[in-house]
Amino acid sequence: MERVKLLGSCIDLCGFEDAIAFIKGKKGQVVTINPEMIDFAGKHEHFAQIIQEAELVIPDGIGVQLGLWIMGYKTRRIPGIEFARKLVSDLAGLPVAMVGAKQEIVEKAAENLKNEVQGLNLVYVHDGYFEDDSTIIGEIVSENPSLVLVALGSPKQEEFIYKLKKELPEAIMIGVGGSFDVWSGMVERAPVIFQKLWLEWLYRTIKEPKRFKRIFPALPLFVLKVLKEKWS
């Protein structure tokens, strides 16, 4: 497992299956990093530390893949939603916890996963609308899950996992962003053709125009920063 840095943030270079095998043996925190998170880490030391100390950091966003390619690392992105879903299937039978999103969404996502994954052992399901992390962490620890899926959005989900893993070091924990929305059926993922052409971001922007302000000029500026780092 080769760990490199892109604009100051750590990223592990590995294929999908190798990353799955690694974290199943290592345990700990998985960060699915994208350009926005790298930018945030550059401005917030504590968040940069969380990424640094994560057991596995996979390149989720297409912008990160482009950035790595510019720096000479010919690796492919690992979509966080697919990575988390693979872990759910592989660890079926072991206790799993889900935290985040609205109550109706996380409950529907849990129901759908139970229907799809034979033997899925969901021991804890909670929405993301809480103020006291310590209470939720205590409840999760009492259930002793082997896999914890956290959908609170970044950076909150990474910060939550960072606290939780100190109390539950033998679990795999991953921030899954909007995955519960997709698994619940409330949000449609981009068609496969868009995924294969690396245009999933474009499809999501078309479906959710408010995302445009997040992507532009953020993505072009990110690429320019990487080019500047390479040339310097």
Give the gist of this structure.
The protein is of the alpha/beta class and 232 residues long.
What would you say this structure looks like, in words?
The protein has helices at residues 16-26, 35-43, 45-53, 62-70, 80-90, 103-116, 133-143, 156-167, 179-184, 192-196, 200-207, 212-215, 218-231; strands spanning 2-6, 9-13, 28-33, 56-59, 95-100, 121-126, 147-151, 172-175. Helix 2 packs across helix 3 (45-53) and helix 4 (62-70) runs parallel beside helix 13 (218-231). The chain has 232 residues and is α/β, with parallel strands linked by helices. It has 13 helices and eight strands. The protein folds into two domains: 2-184, Rossmann fold (3-Layer(aba) Sandwich); 192-231, no CATH class. The mean pLDDT is 94. The strands form two sheets. A six-stranded parallel β-sheet has the order 4-3-8-7-5-6, sandwiched between helices.
